[in-house]
Amino acid sequence: MTTLHIASDANNAKATDNLESVGSGKTPAPSDLCSYCAKPAITACRGCVNAPAFDDNHPPKTFYCNSVCQKADWTKHNVTCKVLCVRKQVYRAGDVIQRVFYTYRERLFEIPITKVEKEHHRMYLYEGQYADNQFLVLFPHHLFSSEDDKNRALAYNACTDSTAFMHYLVKAFLEGICTSISEPTMNLPETPFRVYHVDEHRNYDTREYQHEVFCVTVNGGEMYAIDLSGIQYGWVETVVPWPQYLRSRLDGDPKRVAAIHPFGYSLYNARMLSRGFDDPLQPLASTMKQNLRYADYLAAGCWGFAEGEGEGPLGDSLKLPQAAFEEKRDKFVFFITEVLKRGKAGW
């Protein structure tokens, strides 16, 4: 059973660990009635308060006068609460994994960009020359005027990287709350934004690439897309209910889903592909092998944070109160960033 969560203030410091206010925290709104006794209330169930909407269906807050009323109402509320708790965890997992993915891409960026142009809903990345036998480059932060534009470049043509090399993070954070995870491949319609690559000979890459995401079915039956590279197409939300994803990003056409692969398919393909390269100085071979090595560092980093640092299972952090979750999230992302910087799983 989850507990009430009330925000701290100078006169209520003793209750801070277990309670948090909703709204002003002082005066209940006329509609804020205890779910058990129907009296005005200012506290809501911590587990499901502020749970995101699913397919535009916004869940109401469940208010209680105090923990006595909450306990008395638990038999009635627990089924809904568990569904909403899992929903919050999926969105939080997407938040953490998205941050790590951008950090990962910065460390393993492969396009030597010398110039960036942006017009309307298009961005052009102009490629320079690679240094001898150096197929990974420093990411040029100075060329981007906004965080979104920087992330669009990091996500450009990297959807397979997201499903392959974020595999271990998805598993670590979602294990225990999912009944299935798959990796759909999709043919996209016209998108709100596009990023184009211009090579050193000024040839524009205008090819249409398939897009890949994670499709997650959680306990309770809700399905979500976790789209870590969608910002290149103008989509900023990482986690989207699957029905809404089909409508808003695939024009409501399920036939745009070209294939549905099992969880781990992209990572397996990357490993098999890397074994087929004989020339270590071939660009794709070099970057693929380095990506796989760093994916292993990520896996070891997940273990190192949970066990070596004594932080406990990563999925447990998704259940914390909001402020505590954000603190643990930032600590984890910093830890993983340091692991990637060192290029080894040392802690």
What features would you describe in this structure?
With 347 residues, the protein is α+β, with helices and mostly antiparallel strands. Helices cover 38% and strands 16% of the residues. It is built from 8 helices and 13 strands. It has helices at 67-107, 147-155, 159-165, 167-174, 242-249, 265-275, 283-308, 322-342; strands at 4-5, 43-45, 63-64, 113-119, 122-127, 178-186, 194-198, 204-205, 211-212, 214-218, 223-226, 239-241, 257-262. The strands form 3 sheets. Strands 6, 9, 10, 11, 12 and 13 form a 6-stranded antiparallel beta sheet that branches. Helix 1 packs antiparallel against helix 4 (167-174), helix 6 (265-275) crosses helix 7 and helix 7 crosses helix 8.
Summarize the structure.
The chain is 38% helix and 16% strand. It has 347 residues and is an alpha+beta fold. Helix 3 (159-165) packs across helix 6 and helix 6 (265-275) packs across helix 7.
Supply database-style keywords.
347 residues, 13 strands, 6-stranded antiparallel β-sheet, alpha+beta, disordered N terminus, 4-stranded mixed β-sheet
Write down the Rg: 23 Å
Judged by helices, strands and strand pairing, the structural class is alpha+beta
Number of strands: 13
Q: What coarse outline follows from CA principal-axis ratios? A: globular
| Helical coverage, percent range | 25-40%
By DSSP (H or I, 4+ residues per run), the number of helices equals 8
What is the mean predicted local confidence, pLDDT? 86
Strand content range: 15-25%
Query: Can you summarize the main beta sheet?
Result: 6 strands, antiparallel
Low-confidence stretches: 1-19
Q: Cα distance, first to last residue? A: 35 Å
Order of helices and strands: EEEHEEHHHEEEEEEEHEHHH
